[in-house]
DNA sequence: CCTACCGATCGGTAGG
DNA sequence: CCTACCGATCGGTAGG
């Protein structure tokens, strides 16, 4: 029997990052309280004792999952921001970006992760704070830098790029995110406003030759 | 012994609406999973058996609490919308309304209730849907009607008042709501943008003589 | 209306 | 001898 098959001295189940992915799936399916360490261990094909040796408690495991998730999502928007920055037509570039932001934030996994972190935010404030920073504030700042760059080239007028970035973001995702968080998962979001309506209001205030925001 | 003291034939603990208020407080303190029916019964000074006679399950009790809460919050914005509609200065009227919306939605109890409903939304979709309708969609529609009335009197230009109402709402509360939901409760929201920035972007698009939204 | 109690299952840890 | 892992079960508590 070849040593690869025997795997002597190597764990046969998932550990490390694989374990976190598996555990995340279980948490997303059943929620925090509904998830048992037994279920996670079973899914990962390790004993509970092994699970506890890697993560000393359920809370610690959850924190590790959120950290890994937020880490993986860091700078996820970078390439799309690059495309916006070099877009011929600023309005169309903004619409394309807005479409990607909306699809990303309203994705099932992202939505469920958000619900999970939010529901435990009071009990585990440092976990929620890290999530907020890595998967939100950081991306807002990146968008703000792109808006500043566009302003520098006369494509926009944005005296406060960070504020503008927040406003654009919430114009795009506020209503559908709220609906998805509170309505069941089944809503195909048929009656969501096109992202262009958000971009047009944004440009009414921040377009290069528009608006009393710069009076 | 006077009959008021004996209270013969009357339950000595809280029932009905009082019971729902008491139970809501316990849920808000400990979250759904962290709340036990024993704790609620004790706080309400009734036996667990009595509690189960009024509400056949923990889920049913929770549903009744959310329904009562959403019901109490219905039309909470009406008087403030009246004031906006008769405001001398539209911008200042919008700012005053925005201030009230923000304060209301970011209140501790409202925020905690929102977290609670959201976290159980997948398990109890009809509860979350009722909450969304009564304490959200309904208020958006009321705001939309006010905006339409202002447009009719030439104070605004709003071809789609419902869309405009949603956009104003999320410009005002999106960023601080997100931060409060994910950050601990301690944040005094020092670095929140003034509501006037939201109103000004809104007016850049919907002001009576502004913007390419009406080109 | 209450005390007492149930079947089951939880997060976490023992010895080997 | 070590690291990696297991079956079995602990004390407490959940909703009903």
Automatic annotation (TrEMBL), chains A, B:
SUPFAM superfamilies membership: Homeodomain-like, Tetracyclin repressor-like, C-terminal domain
Keyword DNA-binding in record: yes
Pfam families, alphabetized: TetR_C_7 (PF14246), TetR_N (PF00440)
One of the record's GO molecular function terms: DNA-binding transcription factor activity
Segments of the chain annotated as binding DNA: 36-55
Entry superkingdom: Bacteria
Gene3D superfamilies cross-referenced by the UniProt entry: Tetracycline Repressor, domain 2 (1.10.357.10)
Residue ranges of domain HTH tetR-type in the record: 13-73
Keyword Acyltransferase tagged: no
Signal peptide: none
Keywords of the record: DNA-binding
Entry protein name: TetR/AcrR family transcriptional regulator
């Amino acid at each position: 029997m070849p040593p690869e098959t025997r795997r002597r001295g190597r764990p046969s189940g998932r550990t490390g990052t694989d374990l976190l992915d598996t555990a995340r799936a279980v948490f997303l399916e059943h929620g925090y309280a509904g998830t048992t360490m037994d279920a996670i261990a079973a899914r990962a094909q390790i004993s509970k004792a092994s699970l506890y040796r890697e993560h000393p408690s359920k809370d610690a495991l959850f924190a590790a999952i959120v950290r890994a998730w937020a880490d993986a999502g860091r700078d996820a928007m970078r390439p799309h921001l690059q495309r916006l920055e070099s877009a011929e037509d600023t309005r169309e570039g903004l619409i394309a970006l807005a479409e990607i932001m909306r699809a990303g934030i309203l994705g099932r996994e992202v939505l469920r992760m958000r619900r999970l972190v939010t529901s435990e935010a009071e009990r585990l404030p440092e976990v929620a704070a890290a999530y907020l920073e890595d998967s939100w504030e950081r991306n807002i700042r990146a968008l703000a830098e792109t808006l500043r760059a566009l302003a520098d080239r006369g494509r926009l007028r944005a005296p406060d790029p960070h504020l503008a970035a927040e406003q654009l973001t919430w114009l795009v995702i506020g209503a559908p995110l709220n609906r998805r968080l509170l309505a069941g998962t089944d809503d195909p979001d048929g009656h969501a406003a096109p992202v262009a309506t958000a971009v047009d209001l944004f440009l009414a205030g921040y377009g290069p030759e528009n608006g009393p925001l710069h009076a």
